[in-house]
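Journal club side-thread
Mid-discussion, someone asked how the predicted structure for our own chain would compare to the paper's figures. Pasting it here so we can look after the session.
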Amino acid sequence: MTLGWGGIARLCLCNMAIGGLAALPVNLFNRLMTVELAWPALLPGLLVALHYGVQLTRPYWGHRSDAKGGRTPFILGGVACVGLGLVMTAYGIAYVEGSAAALAIWIVAYALIGLGIGAAGTSFLALLATAAPDDRKPAAATFAWLTLIFGAIAASIGTGIALEPYSPDRLMAVVPVVALICLLLAWIATVGTEARLGAVPAPAEPHLSRALRATWEDPAARAFTGFVFLSILAFYLSELVLEPFAGHVHGLPPEDSTKLSGAKDGAALLGMLAAGALSTFRIGGLRGWAVIGCVISAVGLIGLGSGLPLIPFTVILGLGNGLFVVGAIGSMMRLAAAQEGAAGTRMGVFGAAQAIAAGLAGLIATGILDVARLALPIEAAYGTVFGLEAILFLAAALVAGRLLKSRTPSPTLQPGE
């Protein structure tokens, strides 16, 4: 049994909760550590890298959700784990402040955040992959990404309003409430869902090592893992350099560079909606939109690196990103559900590749930029980063193109994330 439109939309509320929880470490806590507590900016960067590193456990959580015959406990347990990590982080910021004890608390807290996101996110995507009918996977991918973004926006804005005026006591009052709201939202999203769908099929391989080996021996899964790594690495490379580029090269003040990022995100939203809608009506295929999105993103990056007008090519980059995201996630869902009893393990492998790429992207982009600035003019230094990103997107498009040619009788390997 599969879910209808209402069931898919309700299940995606779970991703809204995950997005809301995941926003606080990279936004609010980053600001409080570096400004109010005057810690080096490297500290929150390393903590975020830690939380991505811990998400290498995603294959384990995916396989456990396969083996235990249900995803809901891993979703709710993961959301609760993230909430606990957020409360611990807030406690360290509010009351322990600049001591070594605060650092120890934050390390444990960010490890919990990574574990929770890995468990909840992997299990949610595995559940969505098996619950959404094949012809609704494009729309399901769009719903999943949009709710993730909306959750992050709502949590950031809502927390900011609730913290006015800021004080440590207010922080410790607000963060637990946010965690409880997100846990309640995840419960509403998942309660009764698996009972309607029926039991999760028994795992294809009862042992994790064998399940991972079976996934890796599947040529389509192996190639798609490479696509996920390359494309996500490219996707995140510009996150930390686009606004500095707008300031250094084009002279935009902070308020205008922020608007530029908003224009990029708005174009990405348009791309997501377009890819989801067109794929649902069988205009183009998921992997086809992933390839097109990668190529359009590369065009935008080449334009930015070549000194062409800033706003048009930023919008082109955002549009390509949006097309790519829906194509990639929808294809990921289809490929994860291709083998009965292995959806969680496969989604975990793809998620681990995504976590590695996202964690490396910021370090690679900023490191290359710093080194390039020592030997090149500032414009050429940024052009080097954008050029590398464009090459990675084109390489990802080639990998996805190989998947498009891999036609078998199974519909899961046909072109229509």
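Post-session note: Residues 406-417 have pLDDT under 50 and may be disordered.
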